[in-house]
Amino acid sequence: MASREDCVARSSKRFEQRGFRLVAAKFMQASEEHMKNHYLDLKDKPFYEGLCKYMSSGPVLAMVWEGQNIVKLGRMMLGETNPAESRPGSIRGDLCIDIGRNIVHGSDTLENAKAEINLWFKPEELVSYTSCAQAWLYE
């Protein structure tokens, strides 16, 4: 997940409350080239250049969250890409207004999550641990 800097706490809190584990985080100013690599699957879309320019215009917090069904549940928590179609209670439904200024990105498949993690993080930057709450969350 990547989040705009002024929404980091509000976005992260929801993942923590759900019981997911934060295993990596990096606050950074991503270059436009880095964002073009991240959004490579959208390169033929008319909004691609503007999206990459916008996402590289300020700092982002790139994060890796772990947990059971993290991709599916994370996408539900984020809401629809278009904030106007997102339900109240979702991150985009509560914190976004415009589809072109989406505050948060989340991987849509496990395969894409793995590729995006490799784009943003080195293997040694991922922390492996067992949460003290794990026994309360999972059978």
Short description:
By secondary structure, the chain is of the alpha+beta class. Helices cover 40% and strands 14% of the residues. It has a 4-stranded antiparallel sheet, with helices on one face.
Architecture overview:
With 139 residues, the chain is α+β, with helices and mostly antiparallel strands. Helices cover 40% and strands 14% of the residues. It is built from seven helices and four strands. The protein has a four-stranded antiparallel beta sheet with strand order 2-3-1-4, covered by helices on one side. Helix 2 crosses helix 3 (48-55). The model has no long low-confidence stretch (mean pLDDT 91).
Observed structural traits:
alpha+beta, 4 strands, 139 residues, Alpha-Beta Plaits, single chain
What would you call the quaternary organization? single chain
CATH topology: Alpha-Beta Plaits
Shape: globular
Count of alpha and pi helical runs = 7
Write the CATH architecture name. Answer: 2-Layer Sandwich
The residue-averaged pLDDT reads 91
| Distance from first to last alpha carbon | 26 Å
Per DSSP, what share of the residues sits in E-state strands of 2 or more residues? 5-15%
Query: How would you characterize the largest beta sheet?
Result: 4 strands, antiparallel
> Could you give the count of β-strands?
4
Q: Kindly provide the radius of gyration, computed on alpha-carbon positions and rounded to a whole number of angstroms.
A: 15 Å
